[in-house]
Structure formats: structure tokens, C-alpha cells
Design a protein that fits this description.
Aspartate Aminotransferase, domain 1; Aspartate Aminotransferase, domain 2; seven-stranded mixed sheet; about 35% helix; binds pyridoxal-5'-phosphate
Length: about 425
Amino acid sequence: MSPPAPLATTEEMLAFDREHIWHPYSSVINPPPVFPVARANGTQIELEDGRTLIDAMASWWSVIHGYNHPRINQALHDQIDELAHVMFGGFTHRPATQLAAQLIEITPDPLNRVFFADSGSVSVEVAIKMAIQFWASRNQPAKQKLLTVRGGYHGDTFGAMAVCDPVNGMHGLFTSVLPQHIFADRPTIPFGASWSSDAIASIERNLREHCAELAAVIIEPIVQGAGGMWFYHPEYLRQIRTLCDAFGVLLVFDEIATGFGRTGKLFACEHAGVAPDIMCLGKALTGGYMSLAATLTSTDVATSISEGEPGVFMHGPTFMANPLACAAAIASIEVLLDSPWQNNIARIEAFLQKNLAPCAQLPAVDQIRVLGAIGVVELKSAVDMHRIPQAFVDRGVWVRPFGRLVYVMPPYTITDQALSHVTDAIIDVLTDPPLL
Ligand SMILES: *Cc1c(COP(=O)(O)O)cnc(C)c1O
């Protein structure tokens, strides 16, 4: 073996990265630029060359309190000196039990059984398995399919991919090896618009037709995230809850993106005042510090699963309930609940509404949408991912669009002043025709 290449300079490190490392959804032949991060603090990301970027992405929904938070740092320092990891088969520990107690306390009522998973996608796999095992235990083994809506995103693993939007879900290549589920029309009535009772027709028809083979409906409540950044009417969720009960189908809410305050409620399903039978959490669970997710369900579902064959729930990842990740999550939830997060979200929402509004006049722009601390500028055509992130970096902000969507979901602690840099940069970049 040859010794590792010298990586002393930033250029050498970047060259090595281009040669050897995959980034999310990237090509090794023509990789888009990546920027070398040295450190991050609050809402600022510092590059190796000393430039700083205002973070408008919260590292994909997760860093809700900003980077390098003293209380979460301290919790991790304290935990690492006690117990960094131990297998969860045959053991338990304070970080897991305390976090589970917190999650049960803050999530809707029937959810009081917690399964800790490693990532959002895995928590979706776990939710799907729970639903299928539930019906097998209830002597209805034919109920193995899922119903979902178009435009959804639930993760990149096989079970999760199978319920992502079949067209723009980024996984078309795998269609023939994926389990075939059932797709209803996407929710078309926007959040805040007036309800129309025929909007639920596609979901209702599919439930009526397929309920004998349906284990569960899975849906992202209120906000369809990576599948299109679309905000829909809460009445969908109320109607889906009623229909699921009527047709004997479980209801899974994927709150991986929306959980922990992002939409102005602690969980997005609170906009509709309904609870699921199974809920997936991830992303902001640890304040963006560690990979951790959780699947919560009711005692009813959990005991049914355990009453059937083989008498246990069939999942158990190696790093289940990792104590460091749990400690970060406990601290992050405490920081959230001790903060005036509702005020922060309302402030960010009002700011984005006012300061993204001028974008609507730009020729490149199709539509502006804002809900909670999420701002979306939908364009008429897709951006060039080799040039647009660079254009934002040149303007001192971190915005990473995908497809036709330029969107922001900053840390809740971002100041109005920092936010105005972000919205000014968006307007500036979208006004620059050679960039689009
Ligand atoms: C990000 C996301 C996932 C997948 O989570 P990973 O941690 O990336 O596996 C699933 N569902 C939703 C709604 C998400 O936003």
C-alpha cells in the first residue's frame, strides 16, 4: 500500500476529495464544487480560507439552534466521559430512557412506545415493518401495502424509496426492484387556502378500493419536503385520519423534516389536531449534532405486534439508542423548550413573507411560498448546481437549491439582519440571468 497522499493544503484536500469521496447525489466524473468547512458557530459556517457564510439551510433541517451550541456541547462532553456507546440488546441507560420520556411527553397522546433508529430513512423502514407486523398479528397478513400521495419524500433506503414520489422521487431506476405501493394524487389545496371537499376524492377512492391490502397510509404532514417543498391544507390530515379509521388502515406521519417546531407547531400534525398511529422523527432530533431517529407508536400497535408471530418486533440496529446521540437529543429538546421558539418561528415567517415577496416580480420566478421558518422560491426552470451554490457563497450565504426550488430553512436563532443578507442574496442571484 502506498502512503496516503499529502493533504496539507486546502487544494490537496479538495483534489483528494474529488478523486475518492462520494457526496450526496453526485457524479465522480463531473462533481459539483464542494466548499471546505473549517468550523461553524451560531448561524455562521467558516470556510478554510476564512470566509464566513450565513447558514440558511440548517444543514438540511437539522441544526435548529445553530452550530457549536454551548449546552449541547456540554451535554456531549459530560456523556462521553461516562458512556459513549453500549449495545442496546440486553442493556438500557439513562440517555435512552430520559429521551424516550421527553419524546412521549411532547408528541401527540397515543404515542408512547419508542424505537430508536440510526437515521430518518431507517425510522421509515421501521414504521413500515411495524404496520405490516401489526396486521400479521391481527390475522390479516394480506395487508402489506402502503398508500401514499405523489410528491412525497421518505428517504433513500429501499423501503423508504418505494413510497417516495414515483416520478420525481429520484429513484426511477430502481422501480422494478421496489415493492409496489399505491399512490393517490398529491394534496393540491395549499395551506391557508379554502378547503374543497372533492380534494380528498383520490385518497378516499384508493382507500376504499385497496383497504383489504393496505397496512398503512404514510404521509409527510403539512409540508412535502424534498419531493417539492409544498405546503398543503390541514383538512387533508383530518380527513385521512377519519378515513383510515373507517377503512381499518394505520396512519404513519413522517415528521422527520417538520418535527421540533419548524412549521410553527412543535409537530406539523398539530396544525390539523390529529395524531398518527406511528410517527417518524429524525433530522432536528439532536439539533444536528449526531445521526439519530425515532419511530414512535401506540401501546395498542406495540402490544398487537408482540402478541403475533414471531412474538417480537423484527428490527435492532447495532447503534440503536447510542448514548451520545441520545444525550445530544435530550439537550437539544431542552434548549428548544426553554427558548421562545414560537416567537422566533413567527418572526422568521413574517420576515420571509415580506422580504421574499419582491422575488415574485422576477421573470425567472414562478411562485413564492412561506410557512413557519421555511421559505421557498419556485422557479420556472431548474438551476445549474455547478454554478448557483458558488454564486451564493460569493455573496456570503449558504443556500443549496435543488431542481426548480431555491429554499431556506435557517436555524431558529438567525437574526433579522442575517436573514436580510440571505433574502438580498436570493434576489440578487435570481436577478442575474447568466446564472440561471
Ligand atoms: C430527510 C428525510 C427522510 C430521510 O432521513 P435521512 O436521515 O436522510 O435518512 C425521510 N423523510 C423525510 C420527510 C425527510 O425529510
